[in-house]
Automatic annotation (TrEMBL):
It comes from Streptomyces xiangluensis. Residues 184-303 form the ABC3 transporter permease C-terminal domain. It is a multi-pass membrane protein. Keywords: Cell cycle, Cell division, Cell membrane, Membrane, Transmembrane, Transmembrane helix. InterPro entries: ABC3_permease_C, FtsX, FtsX_actino, FtsX_ECD. Pfam families: FtsX (PF02687), FtsX_ECD (PF18075). Residues 56-160 form the FtsX extracellular domain. The chain crosses the membrane at residues 21-41, 179-200, 221-254, 279-299. Belongs to the ABC-4 integral membrane protein family. FtsX subfamily. Part of the ABC transporter FtsEX involved in cellular division. Forms a membrane-associated complex with FtsE. This is Cell division protein FtsX.
Amino acid sequence: MRAQFVLSEIGVGLRRNLTMTFAVIVSVALSLALFGGSLLMSDQVSTMKGYWYDKVNVSIFLCNKSDAESDPNCARGAVTTEQKEQIQTDLKKMSVVDTVAHESSDQAYKHYKEQFGDSPLASSLTPDQMQESFRIKLTDPEKYQVIATAFDGRDGVQSVQDQKGILDNLFELLNGMNWAARALMAMMLVVALMLIVNTVRVSAFSRRRETGIMRLVGASGFYIQAPFIMEAAVAGLIGGTVACGFLVVARYFIIDHGLALSEKLTLINFIGWDAVLKYLPLILATSLLMPALAAFFALRKYLKV
């Protein structure tokens, strides 16, 4: 009987404040969709970092005859065979170095022609103008500075370049977008909480006569609160379910179908369905507990006799 009464009161409360209940559902759905989206964005950035940082190289470019005439770093002349052998030997001794590959000027010229053969500059270049280099794969991509400190400014070395620096700019942009989404999520969450509190208070005020009678006949505080708390929880749970639907639909249409980014951007290792499904229970739990707790604290003063 008590359970039936509580459930009937939930239905009455939701119908009486239908407009505000709808606003609560929408705000909870949007805020939790942004919350889930920010979590997935963090996972995506981490996945991309792991994928690309594992592939980036540190390049040590060696001086050639052209550099000796124009580049101050090569003022002592083009790199010698002894210098190349010493650089390679020193690299192999370093614990941060995983593999070392030498690229000759002829190989560099061939690779350039393959990539930029249609460029007007390609027809005017000759193999001797291309720089020899060592391509180094590190055991830890964050340890680039160790290589730079050891070889930058060394005889025969024109420059030390880290491909990771190029990727860092991209990841900083993605992280900035992620923090912007989190800020918007926080704002929407505050709006949702304010709507929940206001909806509960309006509902409690509209039923103050019934709650007053319940106090007089000795009903417990929890028994009086339960319908209001469950109204907020039900509205929040509906919003959380909608948020989960947003994330699933977004993953399906943006990455797999529709825009099909997984087919168009094959160089990006996108997160899988396991990452999406991992966060759905968290979103549902948040959508249930957050409104219930907000309603509980909002109703405390209404229980004072």
